[in-house]
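Appendix C: a fully annotated inverse folding record. The material below is reproduced so that readers can follow the format used throughout the book. The structure is listed first as tokens, followed by the designed sequence.
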């Protein structure tokens, strides 16, 4: 991952894709989650590899460090 300048752009919004609240539907029990940062200058950057993913209920679904959700 590249390093941003100390006085760089400011992140104003973090977007997770897919945006649906119901992601896993049988028979597709895996879903890649993408994290995108929206900056104050209007630019958008994929920050999936910089994001720390966790599951609030490991018995329902787990998520790998790269954003792969498994139900």
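Designed amino acids, in order:
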């Amino acid at each position: 991952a590249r390093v941003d300048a100390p006085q760089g752009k400011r992140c104003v919004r973090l977007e997770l894709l897919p945006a649906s609240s119901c992601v896993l539907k049988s028979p597709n029990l895996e879903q890649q989650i993408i994290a995108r940062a929206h900056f104050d200058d209007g630019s958008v950057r994929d920050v999936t590899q910089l994001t720390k993913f966790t599951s609030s209920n490991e018995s329902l679904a787990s998520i790998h460090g790269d954003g792969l959700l498994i139900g």
